[in-house]
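Discussion board: Methods & Data

I've been asked by a reviewer to show the raw model output for two of the constructs in my manuscript, not just the figures. I'm not sure how much to include, so I'm pasting the format here to get opinions. Each protein appears as its amino acid sequence followed by a line of discrete structure tokens. Is this the kind of thing reviewers expect to see in a supplement, or should I convert it first? Here is construct A:
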Amino acid sequence: MTTKPGEYKGTGDYIASADLQNIVNVAVALGRPLLIKGEPGTGKTLLAKSIADSLGLQLIIWNIKSTTKAQEGLYVYDTVQRLYDSQFGGCDVADIKQYIKLGKLGEAFAADKPVVLLIDEIDKADLEFPNDLLWELDIMNFYIPETKETIAAQNRPIVIITSNAEKELPDAFLRRCIFHYIEFPDKAMMRQIIAVHHPDLDQILLGQALEMFYTLRALNDLQKRPSTSELLDWVQALALGGVKPDKIATAIPLLGVLIKKDQDFATVLDQLHQKGSGDKAPTPYGVHNR
């Protein structure tokens, strides 16, 4: 483990706060996995790509599902293929190594240069999954009994783990991680994010759109609050549709770009009318576009 990556400072297409930059660099320096939490739309998954791009490293992504087992991240022994080859010939089935395929964690360990490994949505897996990874993440190697070989990390990977807090993670696992919660962007940071994706957007339109967006996010009882990605789609749709800025204050154009659940439509209409004053309360149009 000789090569050390540089310092993370964010990238042109990913606005990282100073706190986030610092915690990434701390995790890299300590050689600890970085556990990232935050509500949907705060850029948890994209952070790993930003780190890889910033440091010029390969990104390896391990998408976790409810059925994922920790063993799959290390290696898989394809016994079915070996049985098939033994029946129909064409391969030397005595060479077990050809039936061993490294998983994403195994690929990260075997890489000849440092890589960024994203373990995405770890909380989707069963409760034993994080504990099953503890030993390998600590010692940075694992043993393959079928071939009697040990795969040891040539360079310690930068491990980024995301969680949507669907399940509580074990304390033993948490003790081995550096933790950071990405706060939802405030208006100032959101302007920076939008400027990256839509640099030519009319600033008056953007100002009105942000006011309505954060008004919607502040409403009570929404099942799914609009996120950054939905705001980016919405401001683009407003610009392409030629919507005038003053329309956003008196109506909610293309509400279906922001609100995705039927019950939330009713909540938005009810609460905004209660906040408004009679016929001046904002009303949606373009609902059929959702």
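Construct B, same format:
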Amino acid sequence: MEAAESLPGRRAMRKQEIRNRIQNAAYVLFRDQGIRETSIEQICGAAEVARRTFYAYYPDKQALLRELSYSRVLSTAEGMIERIMDRHHDTRARLSGIIDFIAGNIANYTEIDRKLILVSPASLEDENYLREISFNIQDHFREIFKLGVENGDLDGRFSPEILSEMVMGTFNNMMVSWALNPEFPIFEKLEEARDLFQYILSKS
């Protein structure tokens, strides 16, 4: 009975393991030889999966790119905010922690990572999925500011909603600008954003 009950869990783990292999193989190939130059056949060979297995997970290469964009860029943002919420206990430290995390990631990003930023979830066909991703991240930012009011870091002059919109909009615009132009001074802009957030929060 116990073995039968654990079968769905093992099956899910196996599917996720195959999905991870496909994504990891694709990322390395995209990074080393380019997206256009990489074929589905090459991805299947590197991931050691059959072509029909690839199509069981992704209808085409573009669908794989969209999911790779989410798993390597946006999903890390969600987990990062949760960790920073646990590690830091005031609003300013949390925002500074987020900026440090973004700067650290960008320092290690390659050309393919910039391209994945541009393969944004805005291209996702499932609007509900896109909405869920956006709302989840925005909820985390709102929680930061709500806790700031509760803990006395903020006096509530600005609503958590507008503060979260400001922060998310600033980060999104900077990331897209850098993805479009590698000469964009992203690190200087992040430091400027740090000063801006501190200034606005001090006024609130």
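Answer (T.O., handling editor elsewhere):
This is acceptable in a supplement if you add a one-line summary per construct. For B, something like: The domain at 61-203 is CATH 1.10.357.10 (Tetracycline Repressor; domain 2).
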